[in-house]
Amino acid sequence: MAAYQKVALLGKGWLGTAVVEQLAKSGFSVTVLTRSRASVKDIPSGVSIAEVNYDSPESVTSALKGQDVLVNTVGTEAIAGQKPIIDAAVAAGVKRYVPADYGSCTTDPEAQKLPVIMPMADIQNYLKEKAGEGKIEWTVFQTGAFLDMIVGLVPFAFDPATKSIQWYDDGETRISTTTSGTIGKAIAGALKKPEETKNRVVFVHDIVVTQKRLVELAKKNIASGPEWTETEVNTSEEIQRTLNLMKQGKSDLMTGMAQLKAAIFSGKYRVLYEKTDNELLGLGSFSEEDLEALVATNL
Q1: Domain identity same for 20 and 118
Q2: Of 7, 152, 153, 196, which residue has the fewest beta carbons closer than 10 angstroms?
Q3: Same domain for 197 and 170
Q4: 208-234, pLDDT tens digit by residue?
Q5: Which residues of the chain have pLDDT under 70?
Q6: What secondary structure, in 3-state letters, does the chain show?
Q7: Nearest-CA neighbor of 173 among 269, 259, 254?
């Protein structure tokens, strides 16, 4: 199987920006799809932009003509709506689709029973169906929690803005984590190994951490000001609480995030990757010094 050359990307947000950069560095011909050319900033040299009307299947199909791969990095709110995009990719003759599904345990059969994971599982099944019909290939990336996001951008292991910590059980659950830059490198590496990454889940991580270790580093870097406020969360009870809320129709982003955090820190699902594809994709790993430097930079 020949290596891919032309890659389209949908969703140049926080993650998409890192992915575009790594694809361009790896020598791919990259096209960013967008509703408005004016909204796309900081494009690497050589990367093209294509305006698309996502409400028109014909517009999406036209924009994807001649592309080998479509990488989707849209945000949470758009994950469930990927089927029309996949259909357009099939109609355009795109060879491989990488879904917006970069998470900790979205391919774990038990985790897929959780409402917060169900949209990703639905898209995975849709892609398997299309691949079974010989219409398109797929690669799903399991990356663990986004390391550069959970140590400052969002209140995950701790909340630096309020100096508060919700301890999930004993804080000792070991989880795989990956930075956005490494996710970009992983995607680029996988597309250079098309046969080895065809129609399968690819596991990558930078470093395994615990909530307790991340909190230790946060306290080290935020030593001044008021004391940290600490509370405890029982992950089983929290998962059930969010399930009850969702049954009542309260499926908002906050409830989903609460369910996701409890699921990841519960240790009940596949959030620690004992075996990864780092070597296949030419990826290294983070040292403790790298982790400390990242936390210090982000805080």
Answers
A1: yes
A2: 153
A3: no
A4: 999 999 999 999 999 888 999 999 999
A5: 1-2
A6: CCCCCEEEEECCCHHHHHHHHHHHHCCCEEEEEECCHHHCCCCCCCCEEEECCCCCHHHHHHHHCCCCEEEECCCHHHHHHCHHHHHHHHHHCCCEEECCCCECCCCCCCHHHCCCCHHHHHHHHHHHHHHHCCCCEEEEEECCEEHHHHCCCCCCCCECCCCEEEEECCCCCCEEEECHHHHHHHHHHHHCCCCCCCCEEEECCCEEECHHHHHHHHHHHCCCCCCCEEEEECHHHHHHHHHHHHHCCCCCHHHHHHHHHHHHHHCCCCCCCCCCCCCCCCCCCCCHHHHHHHHHHHC
A7: 269
Check residue 98 and give its pLDDT: 98
Nearest partner of 219 among 211, 264, 209, 145, judged by Cα: 211
The residues with which 30 forms a beta bridge, in sequence order, are 7
Q: Which residues contact 65 (CB under 8 A, 6 or more apart)?
A: 92, 93
Do the domain assignments include residue 236?
A: yes
The whole-number pLDDT of residue 20 equals 96
Does residue 252 sit in the same domain as residue 189? no
Could you tell me the two tokens for 262?
């409890």
Tell whether 198 and 163 lie within a shared domain: no
For residue 26, being part of any structural domain is answered with: yes
Query: What is the reported pLDDT for 1?
Result: 63
What is the per-residue pLDDT for 36? 85
Whether residue 230 contacts residue 165, with contact meaning beta carbons closer than 8 Å, is answered with yes
Residue-wise pLDDT for 274-284, tens only, equals: 999 999 999 99
Residues with Cβ within 8 Å of residue 257, at least 6 apart in sequence: none
> Which domain CATH number covers 242?
3.90.25
Q: What is the CATH number of the domain that holds 83?
A: 3.40.50.720
Paired with 72 in beta bridges are 10
